[in-house]
Design goal:
Blueprint (H helix, E strand, L loop, with lengths): L4 E3 L4 H9 L4 E4 L5 H6 L7 E4 L7 E3 L3 E5 L4 H6 L1 H6 L1 H8 L4 H6 L2 H5 L6 H4 L41 H7 L3 E6 L2 E6 H4 L18 E8 L7 E6 L10 E9 L5 E9 L6 E2 L1 H7 L6 H11 L11 H22 L1
Parallel strand pairs: 1-3, 2-3
Antiparallel strand pairs: 4-5, 5-8, 6-7, 6-8, 9-10, 10-11, 11-12
Helix pairs in contact: 5-9, 11-12, 12-13
The structure holds flavin-adenine dinucleotide.
Length: 329
C-alpha cells in the first residue's frame, strides 16, 4: 500500500473541493472494497476523502424516498418504509455480503464497488480493466462467474452489487455533486458496458460525489422480491439474480412489471425487452418463459458459464411465478 493523505470533510462541498485539488483522490465510504483494493495495490489513491459521515439520512415522502449516499446498507434494509414499499431492495441488500460488511458498507460505495473478477484482483494476470490494452485472461480462463450479456472481447467481468439490481428495477435516480454543480442520472445509466474501455466503468465525471439515491413512487413495488442464485447460501456473489415487481389485474393480466438481472453483465441489467413483452399479457408461466427467452436471446456463454443462460431464464420464471402466486393468494 502506498502512502496517502486522509481527510474527513464536514460537508459534501468541502469533500469535492478537497478531491478536486488532488489528481488521484478517492472518496472513502465504509472502505470494505476500496481498502482491500489498496492493500492489493490495484487502487493507489494518493488521498482518501472520507465521506462516510456525510449524507446519512433517509428522507421519506409520499412520492419518493431519498436515501443519503452515506447511509449504511444495514440501515437501508432495516428501514420500515423501504421494507414495506420496496421489499425487493431490502431483500437484495440482505442477500449481499455479511452482516458485518453491510454494517460498514455505504450506499455510495455499494454502487461504485468494483468487479469480483479474479483476474482483476490478480496482478500477475492480464486485465484490460486494470491495465488497458494488456488483454483479458478471464476470456479463456476460469470464467464461471462472468458475463453472458453485454460483454466485449476486452472484458467479460460482471458488476457484483445486489443492491444495484433492485435499484435498476425500481427506476432509481442517483444524485451527484461535482465542481460543476449538481445533476441527477438514472442508476441504469450510471454504469457502462465494457466495450473497448472496461477501465472506464461509469458515466461519473472526475471528482463527482454521489450524494443520494432517489426511489420514485412505485405502488407495484410493494409486491416485489429479489432472488439470488449462488454457489453458497451466504457470503457469495450472485451467479444470477433477479429483482422483480409484478402487478396483475383481477382478470390475471399484467398491468405492470419491473425486472432486472444481476451477476450476468458488466452493469445491473434492466430487462426492458422482457418487461415490454409481458405488459398486458396473461400472467402465466409460458408467458414468463417467452419473456425470458426474449431477454436472453443475445446471451453468449464462455467455457464455464454457459449454464447461466438457462439459469437466468429459469430464475426469471421462478421469481415472477412466486410473485404471481402471492397475487392470487
Ligand atoms: C467478503 C465480501 C463479500 C461480499 N459479498 C457481496 C455480495 O454478495 N453482494 C454485494 O452486493 N456486495 C458484496 N460485497 C461488496 C460490498 O457490498 C461492498 O464492498 C460495499 O458495498 C462497498 O461499500 P463501501 O461503503 O465499503 O465502499 P468503499 O470501499 O468505501 O468504496 C467503494 C468505491 O466507491 C467509491 N465511493 C464511496 N462512496 C462514494 C460516494 N459517496 N461518491 C462517489 N464515490 C464513492 C470509493 O471511492 C470506491 O471507489 C462483499 C464484500 C466483501 C469484502
Amino acid at each position: 500500500m502506498i502512502a496517502f493523505d486522509y481527510t474527513r470533510p464536514a460537508s459534501a462541498s468541502e469533500a469535492i473541493a478537497i478531491a478536486a485539488k488532488q489528481a488521484h483522490a478517492k472518496y472513502l465510504g465504509g472502505g470494505t472494497n476500496l481498502i482491500d483494493l489498496m492493500r492489493e495495490t490495484i487502487e493507489e489513491p494518493t488521498a482518501l476523502v472520507d465521506v462516510s459521515t456525510l449524507s446519512n439520512t433517509i428522507d421519506v415522502r409520499d412520492d419518493r424516498i431519498l436515501i443519503g449516499a452515506g447511509v449504511k446498507n444495514t440501515a437501508v434494509a432495516a428501514h420500515r418504509a423501504i421494507r414495506e414499499r420496496y421489499p425487493m431492495l431490502a431483500r437484495a441488500i440482505l442477500a449481499g455480503a455479511s452482516a458485518q460488511i453491510r454494517n460498514m458498507a455505504s450506499v455510495g460505495g455499494n454502487i461504485l464497488q468494483r468487479t469480483r473478477c479474479t483476474y482483476f484482483y490478480d496482478d500477475a494476470a492480464h486485465c484490460n480493466k486494470r491495465w488497458p490494452g494488456t488483454g483479458c485472461d478471464a476470456r479463456d480462463g476460469f470464467n464461471r462467474n462472468h458475463a453472458i450479456l453485454g460483454a466485449s472481447p476486452a472484458c467479460v467481468a460482471t458488476h457484483p452489487s445486489d443492491m444495484c439490481v433492485a435499484l435498476a428495477a425500481l427506476d432509481a435516480t442517483v444524485h451527484l455533486r461535482g465542481v460543476d454543480g449538481d445533476r441527477t442520472m438514472k442508476l441504469i445509466d450510471l454504469h457502462r458496458l465494457p466495450g473497448g474501455r472496461p477501465d472506464i466503468e461509469t458515466e461519473l465525471r472526475q471528482g463527482e460525489l454521489i450524494t443520494a439515491v432517489e426511489l420514485p413512487s412505485l405502488p407495484s413495488a410493494a409486491r416485489s422480491t429479489y432472488r439470488k442464485v449462488r454457489d453458497r447460501s451466504s457470503y457469495a456473489f450472485a451467479l444470477v439474480s433477479v429483482a422483480a415487481a409484478l402487478d396483475v389485474d383481477d382478470a390475471g393480466h399484467i398491468r405492470d412489471v419491473r425486472l432486472a438481472l444481476g451477476g450476468i453483465a458488466h452493469k445491473p441489467w434492466r430487462a426492458f425487452a422482457a418487461e415490454a413483452a409481458l405488459r398486458g399479457t396473461p400472467a402465466t408461466q409460458p408467458n414468463f418463459r417467452d419473456a425470458a427467452e426474449i431477454e436472453l436471446k443475445d446471451a453468449a456463454g464462455l467455457r464455464d458459464n454457459t449454464f447461466k443462460i438457462e439459469l437466468a431464464k429459469r430464475t426469471i420464471v421462478a421469481t415472477l411465478s412466486e410473485l404471481n402466486g402471492r397475487d392470487r393468494s
